Amino acid sequence: MTRERWVEVGRILITGLIAFLYWRQLVPLPVLLVAVAIGLYPLVKTGLLDLIHEKKVGTEIFVTIATLVAVLGGETVAGAVLMVIILIAEFIAELNTDRARASIKSLVGSVPQVALVRTTSGEQTVSLDKLQVDDIVLVRAGEKIPVDGHVKSGAASVNEAPITGESLPKDKVAGDLVFAGTVVASGALDIQTEKIGVDTTFSRIVALVENAEAKQAPVQKLADKVAAWLIPVVFVFLIVVYLVTRDVRMIVTLMIFTSPAELGLATPLVMIAAIARAARSGILIKGGLYLELLAKVDTMVFDKTGTLTANKPEVVAMESCNADFPETEILRLAAAADRLSAHPLAKAVVTHAQRQNINVPEPEKYEQLQGRGVSATIEGRAVLVGNAALLRESGVSLESAVEKGGQTPVHVAVDGQFVGVIFVADTLRPGAREALANLRASGVKRIIMLTGDNAATARAVATELGVDDIRADLMPEDKVAAISELQKQGHRVAMIGDGINDAPALAKADVGIAMGGGGTQAALEAADIVLMTDDLSKIASARAIARRAYRTVQENLFVGVGVVHVLGITAALMGWIGPIEAAIIHLGPDVLVFVNSVKLLRVRIPGV
Ligand code: ADP
Ligand code: MG
User: Is the CB of 346 under 6 A from ligand 1?
Assistant: First the structure.
């Protein structure tokens, strides 16, 4: 507990004690009035600040007015007790919100603050702020990795759950990428430091989760709007009741139940809990806004390469179309051009060249042409690697499109001459079919595949998966156009991509979901939701969490706030309860909303 919290406890005790003494007629009225002033001080302060900065009338103003009305109307004890009970309620609510936030942080875990560094004079423990890029950090079994980097030597099995939510440990050897915050389960690693502190993937995830609260869901904005609109109605209502009954006690009681405070509380806590829950299964959601949108999505658009496919793309055949360029030479140049590309097909080409022990040169110049391929200069020659559109666009004549039963052709041109094709077979990700079926079961009406690949390959994949519609030969901007067309037809669209060639489409969709397991920073930046494991079944999990969260918000609003308040107002009007009972009952919805929201952290959600 912080100092401020202790001050609050003191305030509650003092005002409570004096109210009690006054009731027993042990202190005179002026003392009670001073106590009320002490108790009201923080309420008036936050109340006025909210009013000025956010133009909203919160519980604080309501309680202040209720207390003043009670005291001025002669119900002094009731007023004081009511104020004390509300102070206690607010105190509990604040503590609980603090705890919910803390639990999110503990879910995502932490990164060690020191690292064991290999230096010329042996090993040395260095604090993270002294650590430098390229330092070699030693991590042993049972320890957390403090930095992002590649393994220099050693072998270990690493639990990456803090990043991916995947609890099966992964084997890491020299050359593999490891992340800060993950744990070496067995073995030991020498890691070459690449990213430290706030730059690590882990820190970025924590920052995203922490900032998620800022992106409010529309239902929250709606709740705030309703609350603002309710206030004048409530005042008119209270004045009318007073004119009819002239009963100060009843007015004070009613005021407690007409305060729209929980309307504001009903949503954010649910969103925090849902985001934490998702983070634990390797799903990164950047705000409550996206939870609500995902719950409402009726159309899902998938990118093909790298998203539905790219289990392990393999070069399966080659064709030389120019006598001067034998297959190995085509492969050598294509691999050189593709060396720096993160595209899954590029990786297949490079791996194939390495397997054949081809010596792949460094490109002198290199450019990734979004959605088409790459253009590079190798040993002074201009090399193009990509789809047919790329070659045509650059004025290379292609007699006919080369196609081969469902395989993706990667065309190669050298100095403006078409020289040959590399065929890549790109298998589906495991579980892709079931993942799509599950999404349909969760109410997604249309599933569409967009691809920059040719129509034949797209069709082959589509039949295997059972998607409703395909659009092939698309440029990145065509994908954006396809999405905005669907939106114009009134659909709510989620786009699922890998962040390579489809970042604009991810941004255009109502919800952009990216495969983030490859560690591409582009995906992490462009998407609203990131799947840290590249596991398509996580989309259905994310949707299940989203729908559950949305339902919880509705429950909170209608049951916690609506029903309790309607019953309370009725009971007050009937004269069944007075201000003190009302203040106690009023704790009910606070607790209810809290319990119902935090439940999300633990409750069973199918597929999560
Ligand atoms: P998708 O839309 O299915 O994800 P992309 O937009 O990523 O496909 O790529 C479209 C096409 O562009 C691929 O089928 C491939 O022919 C070509 N291409 C893109 N980048 C590369 C690359 N780095 N190397 C080879 N071919 C590429
Ligand atoms: Mg792709």
Answer: yes
- Ligand closest to Cα of 373 equals 1
User: Residue 88 has what pLDDT?
Assistant: 81
506-522 residues labelled b (16+ CB within 10 A) or e (exposed): bebbbbbbbbbbbebeb
Going from the Cα of 343 to the center of ligand 1, the distance in angstroms, rounded, reads 7
Same domain for 221 and 96, yes or no, is yes
- Decide if 365 is inside a domain: yes
* 146 and 17 co-located in one domain: no
Residue 107's pLDDT band, with cuts at 50, 70 and 90, is low
DSSP 86-120: HHHHHHHHHHHHHHHHHHHHHHH----SEEEEEET
Which ligand minimizes its atom distance to the CA of 341?
A: 1
Which of 407, 425, 443 is at the close of a domain? 425
pLDDT band at residue 518, thresholds of 50, 70 and 90? low
Residue 157 belongs to domain spanning: 114-199
Structural domains in the chain (count): 3
| 510 carries an active-site annotation | no
Q: What is the pLDDT of residues 240-271, one digit of tens each?
A: 999 999 888 898 888 878 766 666 667 777 88
Examine the domain organization and report whether 95 and 214 are in the same domain: yes
Residue with tokens 């255009």: 508
Which of the following is catalytic: 148, 303, 338, 528? 303
Of 137, 167, 199, which one is at a domain's C-terminal end?
199
| Domain-located, residue 156 | yes
Q: List, in order, residues 6 or more apart from 10 with CB less than 8 Å away.
A: none
Domain membership flag for residue 460: no
Indicate whether residue 457 lines ligand 1 (CB < 6 A).
no
Nearest protein CA to atom 18 of ligand 1, as residue:
373
